[in-house]
Amino acid sequence: MISLGDGCRKFCAGLVACVALVGCANGGPSTPAGEGKTAAGSGTKVKPGKAKSNEPVSSAVKVDADGRKWLGDIPVDVFFDDPLAIVADSAKVTPAAPTTTEMPAEPTPDKPAPTATATAGGMGSNWKDLISIDQLQSETKRIRNHLTVALQSGGTYNGHYKELQVDGAVLAAIANIIVDHPESVTWKPNAKYIRDYGLDLSEASKALGKEAYEKSQTAAEKVTAVLDGNAPSDDNIAPKRPFGEVAHRAGVMKRIEKASEWMRSNIATEGKFKSELEQIQNEATMIATLGTVVTDESYESAGEEDYKGWAKNLVDGAREAVQSTQDQAFPKFQSAINKINKACQDCHASYGNG
Fold it and tell me: What's the start-to-end Cα distance of the chain, in Å?
């Protein structure tokens, strides 16, 4: 009887011998599955060997009466037919993908909401930063008084018709501002009528003669009626219209030019400056306000960088002039006037007067 220890030693010895014989018990090593097969994990192609089917069976193998092959006391059929192929099994085991724990995103600090950029077409309460409701009323009153003088007759009309074009454009601009201004006036609910009648006045006063005079007079009478509190019955007028549709830029720019010219011509000394502080403030305020109006995108070229730059310089200069009256600083006023003048010259050199 063979002991367990002797059996294990004989089994191991037989396995070593079988591996050394390279499958001699079955007539030679098996051929790899195909040319160019790679060894597991090596990435290198392996060349197949030739089978030796005619190699004699090793003398260590005995065959019993039943035809069963034995290697010593161990039957040969307990071994794999091709032990090298088993050892060198090229089947690849795909490793599991490494598990990664997704870290939560770093909290980002809240970004402040972008500051809304006010435009002339919808500045709302920002109009108050430029001009008070009293100043708008004062300019409206000035225009109304001028309409009375200029439209007394066909002759007076012919002498003032170009000024009426400016009056109409400025009235339309003021009415548009009044709609969005946070402060109120008695005619604010009817500002849309003043706006459109101002446009009618600008259009009617473009020529000399009786017909143009009568059309201008009709438009002016409608303006006066609304300012006096008589609401028109016409409900077909749009509540809002862009500045570029109703306030002709040429007329608005003429009013700016008139204010600038008055300050340059009349305020030449410090004494005159201090005696006209209120009027200077009003004229400079009108420049800043109307300068802002003409930056509205509804005007042609208003989106161009040069245009925007010169308009900004104009408004900045006007606001500096207003500040100079509050500080009673004549040198500041002179600097502001120079800035206004240069902005106008640069702009007109490229864009003309309209």
Answer: 125
Closest CA to 311 of 335, 283, 339: 339
- Fold category of 249-351 in CATH: Four Helix Bundle (Hemerythrin (Met), subunit A) (1.20.120)
CB atoms within 10 A of CB 323: 15
Strand extents, DSSP E, the chain:
61-63, 69-71, 74-75
State the greatest distance between any 2 C-alpha atoms of the chain, in Å, as a whole number.
150
Six token digits for residue 171: 């009235």
What b/e readout covers 189-203, taking b as 16+ CB neighbours within 10 angstroms? ebbbbbbbbbbbbbe
Torsion region of 22: left, alpha or beta (phi above 0 gives left; psi -120 to 50 gives alpha): left
pLDDT in single tens digits along all 354 residues of the chain: 444 444 444 444 444 443 343 443 444 444 444 444 443 333 333 334 434 444 444 456 666 666 666 666 656 555 545 544 444 444 444 444 444 444 444 433 333 333 333 344 444 448 999 999 999 999 999 999 999 999 999 999 999 999 999 999 999 999 999 999 999 999 999 999 999 999 999 999 999 999 999 999 999 999 999 999 998 877 788 999 999 999 999 999 999 999 999 999 999 999 999 999 999 999 999 999 999 999 999 999 999 999 999 999 999 999 999 999 999 999 999 999 999 999 988 888 877 766
Q: What is the identity of the amino acid at 194?
A: I
* CA–CA distances in Å: residue 144 to residues 73, 138, 252: 133, 10, 16
Q: Would you list the domain boundaries of the chain?
A: 4-31+50-87, 143-244, 249-351
Angle between helices 191-204 and 154-180 (to 10 degrees): 150
- The three-point CA angle 346-160-275 to 5° equals 65
| Separate counts of helices (H) and strands (E) for the chain | 13, 3
For residue 6, give every residue at least 6 positions away whose Cβ sits within 8 Å of its Cβ, in sequence order, or none: none
Query: pTM, whole model, 2 decimals?
Result: 0.65
